[in-house]
Amino acid sequence: MALSGLDIYKLLPKTNCKECGFPTCLAFAMKLSQKGVELSACPYVSDEAKAALEAASSPPIRLITIGTGENKIVVGNEVVLFRHEKTFYHEPGLVVRVADSWEPGKIAEVVSQVDSYVVERVGMKLTLNGIAVENVSGDATKFVQVVQLVKQKTALPLVLMSANAAAMDAALQIAGPDKPLVYAATPENWQAYADLAKKYACSLAITDSGDLSRLGSLAESVIKAGVADLVLDPGTRNLADSLASLTQLRRLALKKNLRLLGFPILALAGGDDSTLEEQTILATELIAKYAGIVVLGRFDPTGIYPLLAFRQNIYTDPQKPIQVSPGLYKFGEPGEQSPLLITTNFSLTYFTVAGEVEGSGVPSWLVIADSEGMSVLTAWAAGKFDAEKIAKSVKSAGMDDKLGHRKLVIPGYVATLSGEVEEELPGWQILVGPREAVDIPSYLKTVWKAA
Questions:
Q1: Do residues 275 and 218 share a domain?
Q2: Cα–Cα dist 104/275, whole Å
Q3: How many domains does the structure of the chain reveal?
Q4: Which domain holds residue 261?
């Protein structure tokens, strides 16, 4: 739990030596409580005080890393229940499950599809994050063979799932250097799995059948055994129970500062017998509330894309909308008689408009105004996309020297600005474009040419 400035002051040496750069220890404590300075700036803080301050300032949900290199999954460090309170920091890893009971050809195909899957949305590439290998057969040899096959097909992080400690040990002898997530320790086998997690320096998932108090007790046992990096699976598998248990875990970690449950959560979203619709609905809930790793029971692009787009939306900082750089953009080889359009720098607005302009086949100029990442209507309502801003953006783009005409197309949603823009741009003809981007191609081919 965060300490106040006065709480921190009580732990400081109170010498007022000024070596930290502040006139008093109290001033330093106040700045430290606001995270405006590092504790190391105080040369005389005791080891006991340092330990207490570090414990108090550590995030309520531990940061966990699965895998290595640029593909690693990093989850945890969340500090709020609701995105609008601040933001969510580490988006959940979406992991696709394969079973060692499947035919090798099917496993290789699914892994290759997961590894190569990528879609672009608002200028960002969205991908899946890992492969979960489940030891359905219970056979250690088969489990190892499948882990080897998966490692040959992808460098994505792995989640190794087995109830057989011997099979897990054999698989970790191959995959251990890649730091997979070991799944899972239970009240019956936790000692063996804790030993494996320590031996291979891997994160360990722990699970129980929906009883959070027993899950906390299990976490305590595993932590005392020397494993600090845990992932929690509350064992719930349906919509109602998952929502209840994951929300309780988040609240207990953030509001009650219950360190035994202050870890990222893993949840399973469907298996071999689940439909695509069931998997997608459950995974959507888990992304929003509050899974750190979502294991998908099947790979299907029609269900994957909406999950990736939804995750991107949820884990975008609400105070910092995704935006593109303001300026002048060209589509095709526009000339002095080509259309000139303007819109805001909200990424979704830009890419929607840009896609339609490019798809129209009409060489065009597009001016992007700096609206601080707001969409057209939002920016207009906030005074960030008004006549003065539109005129300034056009002038800054140097359009007087690039065009043989003086016609500007503004978004249809701000048609009421046309008269004011004409006042700001004397000699220009202001045209009102369509309200929806999908109508831009027909507008450019018909209305623009007739204007």
A1: yes
A2: 23
A3: 3
A4: 64-314
- Residue 436 falls within a domain, yes or no? yes
**pLDDT of 178 higher than 80:** yes
Same domain, 221 and 302: yes
Amino acid at 187: P
- The length of the chain is 451
Residue 309 lies in a domain: yes
Tell whether 370 and 433 lie within a shared domain: yes
Residue 5 has pLDDT above 70, yes or no: yes
**What tokens does 106 get?**
């099917």
Rounded to whole angstroms, the Cα distance separating 351 from 312 reads: 15
344 within a domain of the structure (yes/no): yes
Residue 32 has pLDDT above 90, yes or no: no
Residue-averaged pLDDT of the chain: 93
Are 51 and 71 members of one domain? no
Last residue in a domain, options 253, 279, 314 = 314
